[in-house]
Design brief:
Elements lengths: L1 H10 L2 H19 L4 H31 L1
Length: 68
């Protein structure tokens, strides 16, 4: 239960909210025809890669700090 609470709290951080909103906006723009599917895929890939790279980096930094 504690893990679930922690994950929900992390989901509500600013970066997560920005990622979710950006995904929704670009999905809507793609459906309406304002951007192509390729443009959507490019932007979405960059955002997701950045987000997960940042998360992995934080986890690695925490592990190094914990082991020191």
């Amino acid at each position: 239960m504690e893990l679930l609470k922690k994950r929900l709290a992390n989901l509500l951080c600013v970066k997560s909210i920005a990622t979710i909103v950006l995904t929704g906006v670009f999905a809507r723009m793609t459906l309406v025809g304002l951007v192509t599917a390729e443009q959507f895929l490019t932007v979405y890939t960059v955002v997701i890669a950045f987000y997960f790279t940042l998360q992995a980096e934080k986890k690695a930094t925490k592990e190094v700090t914990d082991n020191a």
